[in-house]
TrEMBL record:
Keywords: 4Fe-4S, Iron, Iron-sulfur, Metal-binding. The keyword Iron applies. The keyword Disulfide bond does not apply. Residues 230-286 form the 4Fe-4S Mo/W bis-MGD-type domain. This is 2Fe-2S iron-sulfur cluster-binding protein.
Length: 286
């Protein structure tokens, strides 16, 4: 039997979404309301365990009376507001943002981007072969995870997860300005010389694959990574008594990576180094 926690009741707000009256709990964002209404709004920087950063601007919608398009991921729903999600202005903005992102970084491992590029008829190659791209080599300086900044869209989710929203390690931040802005550790040193505690919570929230498990990176390079052949099994971590939930991703009878359910009340998707990376003993044949 599934038990649903009641929580504190919230007042329902009434407003108009694409001409239809809808209700949403007070404190909900426009994106929350859109999802509840079954409307698919693209977003990259929004995370269900983090405070919205308004970085990618792919989720913009029109709100009656607002001078500019507003990010649906952070704008709170208000009683009486009129929201339009599929106007020509909003769709054109999403198209341009997708083109700019896809022309400057590698989005090949970003879920649903290929679908959105097709839906909005975005053409990243229209900027020509001389469009500035990062084209950085992946940084492989440890055995746990890889930093591939050629796929980074500067969504700040890893910075927030490492900072005051979850881990409070503050090992990574944004360095540089403009097109030279990068996610980096202090003094842009190797990860092994930084304050990183290798919890992997930054990997958990990365939307593009700029941060990935070393196991996944190696299998993709070898052409053996296949999510369609993977099973997911959620269990409880046995390292300590906290009760963190682990989701084991298994391919060909081998654990290839470990994540954590974002809706788990104990972890909210976060783990320590043992829970996320300490699984090798399970499949040791010695």
């Amino acid at each position: 039997m599934t038990v649903t926690p009641l929580g504190i009741p919230r007042r329902l707000l009434e407003f108009t979404l694409d001409g239809e009256p809808v209700r949403a709990p007070e404190g909900s964002t426009i994106l929350d309301a859109c999802r509840a209404a079954g409307k698919d709004i693209p977003t990259l920087c929004e995370g269900d365990t983090l405070t919205p950063k308004n970085a990618c601007r792919v989720c913009v919608v029109e709100v009656e009376g607002a001078r500019t398009l507003v990010p649906a991921c952070s704008r709170k729903a208000e009683a009486g507001m009129e929201v339009r999600t599929g106007t020509e202005r909003a769709r054109h903005s999403r198209k341009v943002v997708l083109e700019l992102l896809a022309s400057s970084v590698d989005l090949s491992t970003t879920p649903r981007v290929a679908e959105w590029l097709k839906e909005y008829e975005a053409k990243p190659d229209r900027f020509g072969p001389d469009a500035a791209r990062l084209n950085e080599e992946p940084r492989v300086d440890n055995d746990l995870y890889v930093r591939d900044y050629g796929k980074c869209i500067l969504c700040y989710k890893c910075v927030d997860a490492c900072g005051d929203q979850w881990q409070n390690t503050f090992a990574i931040s944004v360095a540089g300005r403009g097109f030279d802005a990068r996610i980096a550790v202090e003094h842009d040193a190797p990860l092994t010389d930084s304050a990183c505690v290798y919890c992997g919570n930054c990997v958990e929230v990365c939307p593009t694959g700029a941060l990935s498990f070393k196991s996944e990176f190696d299998m993709r390079a070898a052409g053996t990574w296949d999510e369609s052949r993977q099973t997911r099994t959620t269990t409880v971590c046995a390292y300590c008594g906290v009760g963190c939930n682990l989701t084991l991703h298994v391919q060909d009878n081998e654990i290839v990576k470990v994540t954590s359910p974002h809706d788990n009340p104990v972890t909210h998707g976060n783990l320590c180094i043992k829970g996320r990376f300490g699984y090798q003993h399970v499949q040791s044949r010695d």
